[in-house]
Amino acid sequence: MAIHLRSAEELEKMHRAGLIVYEVLTALRSAVKPGMTTMDLEKLTEEKIAWQPGHAAFKGYRGYPCMLCTSVNSEIVHGIPSPRRRLREGDIVSIDFGMEVDGYYADSAVTVPLGKIRPEVQKLLDVTRESLDRAIDKMRSGNRLGDVGHAVQSWVEENGFSVVREFVGHGIGTRMHDEPNLPNYGEEGRGPRLQEGMVIAIEPMVNAGRPEVRMRGEWVAETADGSPSAHFEHTVAVTANGPWILTRPREVTGPSW
Ligand code: MF3
Ligand code: CO
């Protein structure tokens, strides 16, 4: 199976979905406060997109029950919003959201601190976000997919953290999960060559401790050792002008999150 190459028109459609995703995530990022529950975030999202075109991509996907994934502290990904999960000062929460508009998808995530967090946890957020920036910078035609995964892994491991193996970034377009898979590890110069029009959701999942995952039920992945985990994601296109982050407005520049 080949990796899809998206036309300029298709990229604009994905950007439309991506701008809604960005609007929701930036609103949630500023709204989230100690004392709120993760279900409060889900409700805010429902309100935010009620009058927007398209639909939330996760709800109903393989039976997933919500619009958001909200993964707290040692939860890595796919935490399910709950009225019983109250956020407290010192927690971190990964908020993951996707939209489908006019047949095209966009997917993004940000990990947010609640109030004051421990310095080691702040470092985990900084290193994970920077690993995403470094990976995005590799999204240039002529590079190889392995260069992207390597950029994440090398930065994370140099900083004493570990990358999760069981979940990966992914091609995205007319389906949320398309070819290719993008592991958060890799070797430079290996894998398919990147070409203009390729679009990948890059999503480093980084554990402060060991890389192993433990499943809690069907969906929730948490660190086996209970250490905190961070997750940042953007949908990124390879273009003639370099990487294009489809999940934010063009006028926003600088660090990915
Ligand atoms: N960003 C996540 C992913 O790429 C979202 C999927 S959650 C699901 O896998 F519920 F939709 F599966
Ligand atoms: Co994704």
TrEMBL record:
Which of this chain's residues are annotated to bind a divalent metal cation 1?
A: 96, 107, 233
Catalysed reaction(s)? Release of N-terminal amino acids, preferentially methionine, from peptides and arylamides
InterPro entries in UniProt: Creatinase/aminopeptidase-like (IPR036005), Pept_M24 (IPR000994), Pept_M24_MAP (IPR001714), Pept_M24A_MAP1 (IPR002467)
Cofactor detail note: Binds 2 divalent metal cations per subunit. Has a high-affinity and a low affinity metal-binding site. The true nature of the physiological cofactor is under debate. The enzyme is active with cobalt, zinc, manganese or divalent iron ions. Most likely, methionine aminopeptidases function as mononuclear Fe(2+)-metalloproteases under physiological conditions, and the catalytically relevant metal-binding site has been assigned to the histidine-containing high-affinity site.
Q: Enzyme class, one word?
A: hydrolase
Q: Where's the Peptidase M24 domain?
A: 12-240
Q: Which cofactor(s) does the record list? A: Co(2+); Zn(2+); Mn(2+); Fe(2+)
SUPFAM superfamilies per record: Creatinase/aminopeptidase (SSF55920)
* EC code(s) of this entry: 3.4.11.18
The GO molecular function terms of this record are:
initiator methionyl aminopeptidase activity; metal ion binding; metalloaminopeptidase activity
Q: Which residues bind a divalent metal cation 2?
A: 107, 170, 203, 233
The record's annotation in Pfam families points to: Peptidase_M24
Keywords for this entry? Aminopeptidase, Hydrolase, Metal-binding, Protease
Q: Provide the binding site for substrate.
A: 78, 177
**Subunit structure comment from the entry:** Monomer.
Which HAMAP family would you find in this protein's record?
A: MetAP_1
Function statement:
Removes the N-terminal methionine from nascent proteins. The N-terminal methionine is often cleaved when the second residue in the primary sequence is small and uncharged (Met-Ala-, Cys, Gly, Pro, Ser, Thr, or Val). Requires deformylation of the N(alpha)-formylated initiator methionine before it can be hydrolyzed.
Instruction: Report the family membership.
Output: Belongs to the peptidase M24A family. Methionine aminopeptidase type 1 subfamily.
Name it.
Answer: Methionine aminopeptidase
